[in-house]
Amino acid sequence: MKLKPFNTMATAAVAMSLMLAGCSAGSSEKEKEEGKSSSPVTVKPTDYTFDTASNMFAYAEFELSGEPLVEGLGLDLDILDPKKVDQPAKFDYTAGIEAYEYSEEAMYEVVEKSGLGLHLLNGPVIQKAAKEEGKKPEEVLGERFYKLADSVGYPKEEIFSNMYPTMIEYAYGDPHYSQKVETGEYAPGEDGAYVPEYQVNFESLRWDRSRMEKLLTPAAYGGTFLKQALWAGDFMGGFHTVDKDEELAGETPKDDDDKNIRLGVSSADGMQGVILTEEIWNKLNYVHDSLFYQSAKGELGKAGLGSEYDPSKGFVYLPHATEVTEGGSEAAPNAESLNVTDKSSKLNDQWMMLWPSAEFFGMTDQRADNKNTPPSFRALFDGEPFAAAPKENTDNDPANDVVSDDAFSVNRDVMLHTFKNLDAMHFNNDEGTFVTEHDGKTQGTKVDAFEAGYTIESLRIFQRAIDGLPVGYASGEAAKGLETAEGKRALELIRKQADFMMNEMINDSGLVTESYTIGKGKEGNETLKAQLGAIRGLNAAFLATEDEKYRDAARKLYAAMDEKLWDKKAHAYETAKGEMKYDPATAGAVAAVYRVALNNLSNSSGDDAVKALDKETIVNRYTDFFDTVIDGPGLDEGMQTSEFWDTGDFYKKGDKSENTDGDNVPQIQAGHGKYGISPVLVPVEVKKK
């Protein structure tokens, strides 16, 4: 089946491309300035398998460590410009342009371009509408995109063509392009620059379906959900005017009744925001209806009402791995059958679903008691363009809740199942800690520092969401909460896990051990990943409880990590003793820890000053890390495999460099393969020369 083409891109986005493309940096000048050719290390990729969970997690942390970080530190975002490399300062550019835009573009590769998953045509909401309206799903989806475009004031004729919107994403794939990328001119710019065809027509950006591992894991579709929820929240966190496309904060949920006011912070961002929301809505319904394992029956089935779910009466949970046998057309495959290949519950899967569902809960929250939901979010889910929740589900009485497929209700049910399962299946009440695995009948005994630390962070976001506090980019802001029973239990779990980490997992060296087995004690090495997870968790415990002992512990651990693991010659951390092997999850956690260090742990009045926690030192570590590990010292090195105009690599007539900004990241058609490679992260090993 040939999909109905959605034509071109936003006029505003094209105009921005052309405006920026006129003056990119010359390669020779930048290379001389940064001295890349004399790097003391090599940073070679070790595997080109795309790990969806690891990449999407990393890019979520890059996003939060990008524009929101530098803006919070006082930067005017309007002065950031991809063509002005390292301006107004190297850190500002690295965080606000590179980290942030790498994050956004990688998400689009997965959910709009690659084909890494099941097509949105097969989404439960689309299929239901097709059945009710007596239409073909592709007709319903096309009309749906047009309706979404109207809601944000986006020209229908300017929607990207040959998109592959995903309903749910697979765990692994090969990010190399499977055909020649269409880099020919779509629209001209200044000084020979132009917008390439592939930026408006995604047909040449597909990955090889035969090289995809057609496996559904909660960490993979949950990690993508996290990226979608964070960006959707950003894009839909305001209104804009139609005539001037100017952002408005919004005063009431009825602001868009004015014909000159539409949803979204701009027309182009709004279009992406509603597409992401549509994908999330369908994915959640699919997860809710098809992917919960019923332990009593030994088979996949539906989740019920989250408010009524009682794990003591039989676990209903998300299993680690479900294999998909595809059916339908090659252009828009569906799941012909599902087979659970690993029924265990993994802690990593569960917190990777709790975090995004909590973020999305904050966006969809229509509870009458919550006064903190922004007006633009209320307007988004008032019936147009997205269904409103039934009144029974938004009052303060859980006893009258009803099953509904609207975004708020279905997400609430998935979120509460996940939270209750984290508590019942993974939390050891006697020891006060989370274990990594539950086989469906018996709880395991291993504690992992990274997983436990990030479980604390996920619980922090959940507590804020369920108690009606701001999440997303505003997840550090104070507000009056609803003090729900679930929120109180989340805080209790946070305290107990943080205390266990402080009391049982820190060695005499001041570093955390990577694991602990109940009944045996500390095990494993003092890996970088363990330190990062523990710092992230202790910082989250401090933010959630305001107890300074957790901040003190996080500061001490950060200082020990910086002293013992930072390699001054390589400008990178050792990931384990004597080696520097980075995977995307580790890289994402490094960016996250620099963010929390700058925001919460850095030296302030009343602290005993620690050099590692001087803001200048942290900033230098951030830029060194991105230069060395992420961008790498050469075009065939570094974790970030490719890039395009969002981070300064513009297309220019007659330019054969395939790297017009002169950095160490090639254009997408040029790097790491016959037809190039998507702008994603791959594992690398850093070796000193």
Automatic annotation (TrEMBL):
Keywords: Signal. This is ABC transporter substrate-binding protein. InterPro entries: 6-hairpin_glycosidase_sf, 6hp_glycosidase-like_sf. GO terms for biological process: carbohydrate metabolic process. Residues 653-672 are annotated as: Disordered. Gene3D superfamilies: 1.50.10.10. It comes from the Bacteria. The keyword Signal applies. Residues 1-27 form the signal peptide. It comes from Fictibacillus aquaticus.
